[in-house]
């Protein structure tokens, strides 16, 4: 199911219907919701060339923008404030919520369900590292693929023209860990290991700048 991102709006945009990301239901953007979003975004003095895009994005994905040009992404009962520059990553996260709806044997080959704790830990990892890198260096890393694995873990995978990386979030005994492997073109500067999810580790964040 596609997330609707329009660059232009009809005269009555609230009459449009849109698929809400990762949901089977169709909901309508009401006049009230439209006017609230319009008033809020105008208050922020969003540049004219971005106005329509922000206006339509907000109601479709329930992203609320604040006056620091960041937005709040709600994933289940967690809320994340994410810089607008990382919008692509936020949308990928928003569209990945279907993963937690998978049933036992979802691949018809004995696959395990994805525990919400593991899924949310993967989202925490992605958001924490991408924001840390952006705030410290201004670099925006590419948006990874977010995929469920047969064993109940989550893969975050990047492949750019210069680098590739796989991070697997899994539960081992009583703790959650991120196992990672990455390298640059021609297998240069490989990195491999695992880290706890309690903080951002500088050596890993430094290498991940290559994913931009």
Mean pLDDT: 75
- DSSP helical segment count: 5
Q: Give the low-confidence spans.
A: 1-30, 51-68
β-strand number: 10
Helix content: 25-40%
The end-to-end distance, rounded to whole angstroms, is 27 Å
Would you write up a description of this structure?
The protein is of the alpha+beta class. The protein is globular. The chain starts with 16 loop residues before the first strand and ends with a helix. α1 crosses α2 (48-61). The chain has a domain at 104-211. The model is unreliable at 1-30 and 51-68 (pLDDT under 50). It is 30% helix and 28% strand. It is built from five helices and ten strands, in the order ββααβββααβββββα. A hairpin with a 6-residue loop joins β1 (17-19) and β2. It has a five-stranded antiparallel β-sheet with strand order 6-7-8-9-10, with helices on one face. A three-stranded antiparallel β-sheet has the order 3-4-5.
């Amino acid at each position: 199911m596609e997330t609707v991102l329009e660059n232009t709006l009809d005269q009555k945009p609230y009459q449009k219907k849109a698929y809400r990301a990762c949901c089977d239901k169709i909901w309508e953007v009401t006049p009230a919701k439209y006017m609230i979003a319009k008033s809020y975004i105008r208050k922020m003095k969003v540049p004219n060339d971005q106005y329509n895009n922000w206006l339509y994005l907000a109601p479709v994905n329930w992203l609320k923008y604040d006056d620091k040009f960041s937005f709040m992404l709600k994933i289940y009962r967690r809320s994340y404030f994410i810089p607008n520059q990382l919008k692509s990553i936020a949308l990928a996260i928003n569209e990945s919520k279907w993963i937690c709806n998978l049933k036992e044997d979802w691949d018809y080959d004995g696959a395990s369900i994805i525990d919400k704790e593991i899924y949310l830990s993967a989202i925490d990892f992605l958001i924490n590292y991408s924001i840390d890198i952006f705030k410290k260096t201004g670099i925006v890393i590419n948006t990874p693929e977010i995929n469920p694995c047969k064993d109940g873990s989550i893969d975050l995978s990047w492949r750019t023209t210069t680098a590739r990386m796989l991070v697997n979030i899994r539960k081992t005994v009583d703790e959650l860990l991120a196992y990672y492997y990455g390298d640059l073109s021609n297998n240069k500067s490989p990195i491999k290991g695992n880290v706890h999810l309690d903080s951002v580790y500088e050596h890993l964040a430094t290498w991940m700048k290559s994913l931009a």
